[in-house]
Design goal:
The protein is mainly alpha-helical. It has a domain of 62 residues. 46% of the residues lie in helices and 0% in strands. It is built from five helices and no strands. Helix 1 packs across helix 3 and helix 2 crosses helix 4. The N and C termini lie far apart (109 Å).
């Protein structure tokens, strides 16, 4: 029986880097390796993952990576851009009348109210 070659940490991290959150969760479910461990290996926080850990998820990585690459993520608007702004809806207040402008009422500001 031939033992398959063990990938380097860089190869494993690169392969995990192709996966997005849903694929990492599926990989965790299939392999039994916690998602946090996969994230730590992916980010390089885990400097020396065990060979048993890598062997548990390695067979599934290629298939999940092909799924991740087949469906590109939806394009996102730049940070700080609201949904309304992306849809072209502006939020402008009505212009306030200039001070002293006549609003159609009687002079003096009482708008025609009779004094008692």
């Amino acid at each position: 029986m031939m033992i398959p070659p063990v990938p380097t940490l860089a190869q494993v991290a690169k392969a995990l880097g192709l996966l997005r959150q849903p694929q990492l969760e599926k990989l965790s479910e299939l392999s039994g390796v916690p998602v946090g461990t996969l994230w730590n290996i992916r980010s390089g926080k885990s400097k020396n993952p065990g060979i048993v850990t890598v062997a548990a998820f390695q067979p599934y990585v290629e298939a999940l990576a092909s799924v991740a690459l087949a469906k590109p993520p939806q394009a996102r608007a730049p940070r700080g851009t609201s949904l309304r702004a992306r849809q072209g809806v502006t939020r402008r207040k009505a212009a306030a009348p200039a001070p002293g402008a006549d609003e159609g009422g009687a002079p003096g500001g009482d708008n025609g109210a009779a004094a008692a």
